[in-house]
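Appendix B. Raw example, untouched.
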Amino acid sequence: MAAVLVVTGPSGVGKGTLIENLRQRVPELELSVSATTRRPRPGETHGVDYWFLTDEEFERRAAAGEFVEHAAYSGRRYGTLRTELDERVERGVPVVLEIELQGARQVRRTMPAAVQVFIAPPSFEALRTRLVGRGDTETMAHLDARLQTAREELAAQDEFAEVVVNDRLEEAVAALEAVVRRGVLKAKGDAA
């Protein structure tokens, strides 16, 4: 069975950038494309960055059991379609899931062998600055809701054996790569 890496942390902490850099160092690690009900940001492509679904389509698929995990986050829904994971597991390819905390907890219950990493910001203020700088919040109320969710998520980092602080990109990528080489790729080799 292929090894699974779960990367989680608050919105705006840089999970996507870290994973992108990690995959340059560990090219055999494939990214599972998540589904979401949020609208695409400029430059995002359906089926590449996310599977962009309507609320109705997401609900239908959730009711049909098509998700490994799914969660609501900041008024939108996110999830990992089973097909995204099953196809890779069948090929023996290690896979990374970039998911929200609720989803990571679900995966922990259903796939206890998955390696889970929490990405933390260097400080709460740094995270706030990143969220404001991204400009993807429609209103101040939406930003406040994201920041409140982030506070709650940061309190959960003690649930994770592996925590990487994303302060300096190169150092954070190196730390994440060490986790992958120690846990994910080793698990893949052990299963072979």
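End of appendix B.
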